[in-house]
UniProtKB/TrEMBL annotation:
Gene3D superfamilies: Dihydrodipicolinate Reductase, domain 2 (3.30.360.10), NAD(P)-binding Rossmann-like Domain (3.40.50.720). This is Dehydrogenase. Residues 127-243 form the GFO/IDH/MocA-like oxidoreductase domain. It comes from the Bacteria.
């Protein structure tokens, strides 16, 4: 399968390596980037082909497109692929804002093409087991969910202005997991954020830390927090508490947190430090799934409508923080019919 990958940055490099090892793709991979030299370096390392620009991805007769460029470029590239009739895997989120998201989805709908979004936690062993536990009824009625995403260190400074900000870029993963695990929709959010950390966040008009309280349509309450500055390590967890039992995702011998109890577990020897090591197997599995989707061997595990719902929750958080009030999801355009 000839796949054209657009964006040879942090995640693009990882996805390109995964694809170049895939038996269906291998040496047929084509990579490109706005920074041509970067695309060449990556292609040379993997034995792939570097395209001189994005245009060639749409003229060299590829079978599918993988978009790993900056978020600000996603909407236009999804539209272009849709108009070319090509299946797309695109990193989250669909676009930096709601109008861009709805426009991209309209193009995909009009073309009738495939769009799979990169919510890799849907392929993570721990999150998958949590979904099964909740859906089986083992926890009883779920009353509380606590989700968190803590980056060990901030992303590169030039990443921020193109990212959509902390809710859309980072917490969007937790919003997707809340829906995917519980099977319920969020109906209201109350969000706040802080920019008291490194100046680069203030200067980009972003925040470095955020918290939100979310109400699900069955009355379950959830909290989510995110930070870009968690020196102890990369900490992505979710606790789900029901009337019968409670479980934790992301709690293992690499969780970067120290217990203050004399009989507590010892601190992790090798705490998780970043998303690529923590979610490596999940990233590989989501791309393997994409190849199967393109081949018609399986259903799309995360289509545009799913990603839109996660983005609408992020939009509600942005509005809630700005107006300092609870926001009903019904206020955010783009709801399903
Ligand atoms: N699923 C995840 O856990 C996860 C993790 C990291 C990043 N991401 C997503 O992946 C995307 C890329 O993130 P990153 O961390 O790799 O960023 P990055 O800044 O490391 O890389 C982005 C690359 O895109 C290129 N680029 C920008 N605009 C382009 C355009 N119009 N055409 C071609 N190339 C273009 C840049 O030159 C750069 O090489 C973002 O949308 C981000 O949200 C997802």
């Amino acid at each position: 399968m000839r796949i054209g990958l657009i964006g040879a940055g942090r995640i693009g490099t990882f996805h390109a390596a995964t694809l170049s090892r895939h038996r269906e793709v291998g040496g047929s991979l084509i990579v490109t980037d706005a920074d041509t030299a970067r695309a060449h370096r990556l292609a040379d390392r993997l034995g792939a082909t570097a395209a001189p620009s994005v245009n060639e991805i749409f003229t060299w007769g590829v079978d599918a497109v993988v978009i790993t460029a900056a978020t600000s470029a996603h909407g236009e590239l999804i539209g272009r692929a849709a108009r070319s009739g090509l299946p797309v895997f695109c990193e989250k989120p669909i676009a930096v804002d709601l109008p861009g998201t709805l426009a991209a989805l309209a193009e995909v709908d009009a073309a009738g093409t495939i769009l799979q979004l990169g919510f890799q936690r849907r392929f993570d062993v721990g999150y998958t087991a949590a979904r099964e536990a909740v859906r089986s009824g083992r926890l009883g009625r779920l009353h509380t969910v606590r989700a968190m995403t803590s980056d060990q260190a901030p992303p590169p400074v030039d990443y921020l202005p193109l990212s959509g900000g902390l809710y859309r870029d980072c917490l969007v993963h937790d919003f997707d997991m809340l829906r995917w695990i519980t099977g319920h929709e969020i109906v209201e959010v109350y969000a706040t954020g802080a920019d008291a950390g490194p100046a680069m966040f203030r200067e980009a008009g972003d925040i470095d830390t955020a918290a939100a309280v979310l109400t699900l349509d069955d009355g379950t309450l959830a909290t989510t927090t995110a930070t870009r500055v968690n020196g102890a390590g990369y900490d992505v967890r979710m606790e789900l508490a029901g009337e019968l039992d409670q479980i934790a995702v992301g709690l293992d011998d690499r969780t970067p947190i120290a217990s203050t109890e004399p009989a507590g577990p010892p601190p992790a020897d090798k705490p998780w430090m970043g998303f690529l090591e923590r979610f490596g197997p999940a990233y590989e599995a989501e791309l393997a799934a994409f190849v199967e989707v393109v081949l018609g061997e399986r259903a799309n595990p995360c289509d545009g409508r799913e990603a839109l719902e996660a983005l609408r929750i992020a939009e509600a958080c942005v509005l809630s923080r700005r107006e300092r009030r609870p926001v009903r999801l019904a206020e955010i355009p783009g709801a399903r019919d």
